[in-house]
Fold:
Amino acid sequence: MKPIQMVDTKTQYLKIKNEVDKGIQEVLDSAAYIGGQKVASFTEDLNNYHKSGFTITCGNGTDALQIALMALDLQPGDEVITPSFTYIATTEVIALLKLKPVFVEVDPKTFCINPDAVRKAITPKTKAIVPVHLYGHAAPMEEIMQIAEEHNLFVVEDNAQAIGCNYAFKNGTVKKTATIGHIGCTSFYPSKNLGAYGDGGAMFTNDATLAEKLKMIANHGQKVRYYHDMVGCNSRLDAIQAAILLVKLKHLDEYIAARQNAANFYNKAFANHPKITTPYVAPYCSHVYHQYTLILEGVNRDALHNYLAEKKIPSMIYYPLPAHKQKVFNNFGAGNYHLEITDWLTERVISLPMHTELEEEQLNYITTEVLNFINQ
Ligand SMILES: *Cc1c(COP(=O)(O)O)cnc(C)c1O
Structure:
């Protein structure tokens, strides 16, 4: 059996090596290392894939979130509602911009922001909501957009983990996550569902004015070179990464299907186990399984993690400390939060290997060992 990895980007690369190497060579031959045809082509393909109004690429997913928030012209102290149960990037950029992150609970089934908690957290200072499509499952966007409309709030989707996820509205309309809020953000970090071989990110919007602004902010606040209209930053997708992503985007749906197959294998093996809750999939979305995350009850989760490590099976805890308990947020009243569901999940979740190259033999070994430990 091949050694098991949490993420196997190498085997995936070898299957598309010729195309990828050719794309990289073309960039080297063109000497267009920044911008150029590869970035333009990838941006266009990515926009078409999402059926988005506008797509703006940038340096990474964290920058995408930061630039998105910068484009909303918020004032210091304005409140931004976001889940505590997420990766640090989501909440960090809010604080970086001198805005106030307001942490709310997630739904323990979907791991995503709870709309009722959002409603309760709204104050006159609330200006935006940043839902996260965690682990590849969509947040309940229809309700979030409804709340945003009622209270005149912006919605910035953190789609770093859910590129390709389909969201079905009650009226039958289907959209890609990242194209539902005012701005959607994603990441091409290598382990993400559409991973580059370095950093990369993108923003999506259907609003032409916002699109223009996002583009300017990512480019030093300029529209005309050397004429700067606003404070921006330098955040761009480099041409070599664009060449790689241009190839990989064509395979994205097939990659998602491979993840879903692996998830189905896991689901079957763990079905109806009294101590294991397998990932829930809400009727409104497809799950793209950036992570395959179990909730364990009555199991020593950390002992399982160590047991699996001994059996050469990697597993991860995403995330061991929620935002409201991070030291960095001490100054943001983090100590005043009581997010019981978030804390409950933090103690019980475990993510198993999930990528496009998992083989049945490996999946069989992983599930057998997980059950061996839990049933002992
Ligand atoms: C990966 C990730 C980001 C940040 O993306 P980078 O490209 O690493 O900056 C933001 N939010 C979530 C939920 C992520 O998983």
